[in-house]
Automatic annotation (TrEMBL):
Gene3D superfamilies: NAD(P)-binding Rossmann-like Domain. Coiled coil: none annotated. It comes from Streptomyces fructofermentans. Residues 13-189 form the NAD(P)-binding domain. This is Nucleotide-diphosphate-sugar epimerase. InterPro entries: Ergot_Alk_Oxidoreductase, NAD(P)-bd_dom, NAD(P)-bd_dom_sf.
Length: 292
């Protein structure tokens, strides 16, 4: 593909779980890519073809060099909310297209209806984007399969019991690679302006069943034990803000006995079904045995 007339896409959060895969997907599609990183050394993991810019969402003017001449941006908000309006204003001044990684905070399912400071921030940014007249697409992944690495891998690596609250809570975990593929497709393919996509995996699984599936991938049974919410709170102290811990516990509590919310958005956009949690676990088995 002749890249001389294709304006580059700027990927924020380019070294993150989803952003890093978006970079590869765009390059594979022949789209020139710019990456925004906080620190130049973080860019060492990016392909040589990527044009790297250092900048920070908390300093909106630092984004100008990366935005000059860009055609679209993949926006992953990883900063406090104070500069959101100024950043969105700058995006609108430089380019016409934004794909925003949001959350399913409007989804009519109890799992997504808990008070959540991140959802409030996402809703505010969506309003700011809508007010500028930017061509936008909103993508809303539900629970990411990769969360299980942070949650359960330490115990699994140590061959300990996985202890967790609300083992019967059902979610439909989505593979980060599917989220990234949808983001990349909506960044460079026509027909997605105004799109608002809730992305989920293909099946409703309890948390205990997800641990069992990881055991299947590793070839041994992983014991699972229910933990009380209070125990989870005290063990999580210092690892995440209290509001996030409360939101997770409320969401899991609300999801017990409720099949997870499932959409066909991934298949509709990509033309292939989303990866199952079995596939994800098989592809990431070594992460549960060899350390992060």
């Amino acid at each position: 593909m002749d890249q001389t007339h294709i304006p580059p896409v700027l990927v924020t959060g380019a070294t993150g779980r989803v952003g890093r895969v978006v970079v590869d997907q765009l390059l594979d599609a022949g789209i020139p890519v710019r990456a925004l990183t906080h620190r130049a050394e973080a860019a060492a993991t990016l392909p040589a073809k990527v044009e790297v810019f250092t900048g920070d969402l908390t300093a909106p003017e630092s984004l100008d060099p990366a935005l000059n001449g860009a055609g679209a941006v993949f926006l992953v908000w990883t900063a406090p909310p104070q500069t959101a309006a100024a950043v969105v204003e700058r995006l609108a001044a430089h380019l016409r297209r934004v794909v925003f990684l949001s959350s399913p905070h409007q989804t009519p399912h109890p799992f997504f209806q808990q008070p959540n400071p991140m959802a409030t921030l996402h809703a505010d940014i969506e309003r700011l984007i809508a007010a500028t007249g930017l061509e936008s697409t909103i993508i809303r992944p539900g629970m990411l399969s990769s969360n299980s690495l942070a949650w359960w891998a330490p115990a699994i690596r140590s061959r300990e019991v996985v202890r967790w609250p609300y083992g019967a809570a059902e979610t439909a975990p989505i593979d980060d690679r599917d989220v990234a593929a949808v983001a990349a497709r909506t960044l460079h393919q026509d027909g997605h302006v105004g799109g608002d996509y809730v992305l989920t995996g293909p099946e409703s699984l309890t948390q205990a069943a997800q641990v069992g599936i990881i055991g299947d991938a590793l070839g041994h049974r992983i014991p699972f034990e229910e933990m009380t919410p209070d125990e989870f709170r005290s063990l999580s102290e210092g690892t995440a803000p209290k509001s996030v811990i409360d939101m997770l516990l409320n969401a899991w509590s609300a999801a017990v006995g409720q099949p997870a919310y499932i959409t066909t958005a991934v298949a509709d956009i990509l033309g292939t079904p989303p990866r199952t949690f079995h596939q994800w676990a098989a592809d990431h088995a070594t992460a549960f045995t060899e350390g992060p």
